[in-house]
Amino acid sequence: MSMEQLGRWLSTLQVQWPFSLRLRPWPVVLSLIFLACLATAFLVVATTHATRVQYAQLQQLEQERRQLNTEWGQLLLEEGAWSTPARIEQIATQRLGMRIPDVHDVEVIRP
User: Fold this and answer.
1) Residue 105 — φ and ψ, nearest 5°?
2) Separation of alpha carbons 60 and 17, rounded Å
3) Which residues cross the membrane (predicted)?
4) Alpha helix (H) ranges present in the chain?
5) pLDDT tens digits for 16-73?
6) Which member of 1, 26, 79, 98 lies 3.0 to 4.6 Å from 92 by CB, making a disulfide possible if both were Cys?
7) Angle 68-74-76 (CA atoms, 0-180°, nearest 5)?
8) What is the C-alpha separation between 29 and 58, in angstroms, rounded?
9) What 3-state DSSP class applies to 59?
10) What is the pTM of this model?
11) Distance, CA of 43 to CA of 35 (rounded, Å)
12) CA dihedral sign of residues 78, 82, 85, 91
């Protein structure tokens, strides 16, 4: 079909139809704007949800960190208590039967 024949066909088509077949750009523009608003609203909802989920995870991780720091402090205190000289002396006396020798039990060996 040539351009002239296509033009004649379109003009006869417009006359024969009960409504005029005119392509107006504003319905297309309005449809695109509506779709853009709909997509933007969906993305806002999705982003808000993802932010809330990540914030909940952050709160949980911070709670775990606080708990671990508390346990670490308790372990440091226990380590300090286990390594004191008085505790070592007490365990040596009770479990191993060790004692500090009397003056009479000490022998001095000279070269």
Assistant:
1) -90, -5
2) 67
3) 26-46
4) 3-16, 25-82, 85-96
5) 555 555 666 778 889 999 999 999 999 999 999 999 999 999 999 999 999 999 999 9
6) 98
7) 105
8) 43
9) helix
10) 0.50
11) 12
12) positive
> Which amino acid type is present at position 68?
L
Q: How far apart are CA 12 and CA 4, in angstroms?
A: 12
Contact 13, 21 (CB under 8 A): yes
What SS3 state is found at 97? coil
Site of tokens 């999705």: 46
Under 8 Å between Cβ of 98 and 92: yes
Q: Token pair 């750009």 is at which residue?
A: 25
Q: Show the tokens assigned to 31.
A: 């449809």
* C-alpha–C-alpha distance, residues 23 and 32, integer Å: 15
Task: Write the single-letter amino acid at 22.
Answer: R
CB-CB neighbours of 80 under 10 Å:
10
